[in-house]
Give the backbone structure.
Amino acid sequence: MKLSKSFDKSLWVFHFNAGSCNGCDIEILAALTPRYDVERFGIKLVETPRHADVLLVTGPVTKQTKKPLERIYEQMMDPKAVLVIGNCGNTGHIFHDSYNIAGPVDEVIPVDVHIPGCAVRPEGVIFGVVKAWEALEKMRGAGTKEETKEEAEEAA
């Protein structure tokens, strides 16, 4: 099995807590521990959105975090993917009619991958990052030229 060209580069992820209870955040950290060790696949948390390929958001968007979330999204280079982890970020969950909630994440910025759960297990976090990676591949058009070139070589 040959991996596509996009796997030559590491996938850098920026995590933003938009108002989470910290349950999903702990599971994200668990995905980085030696048991799951996502860094061996090149998936790495970065400290600035300017270096990130994927924006990982947890929690419902509060009125206080709405503008910072929009600013972080604008700071990321294109192509970029947005991954929302947990029920609160996807629907608002138990906070959906709270006075201080601006809404779920997709009402503030465009979202590419939704991973539901309360709290999402590390396997779900890894699955979501892989789906975000695939979404980035489609945006970049990766693999189409390489595959056709390889197919042409095989046919010859």
Q: What stands out?
A: The chain has one domain: 8-155. The domain at 8-155 is CATH 3.40.50.12280 (Rossmann fold).
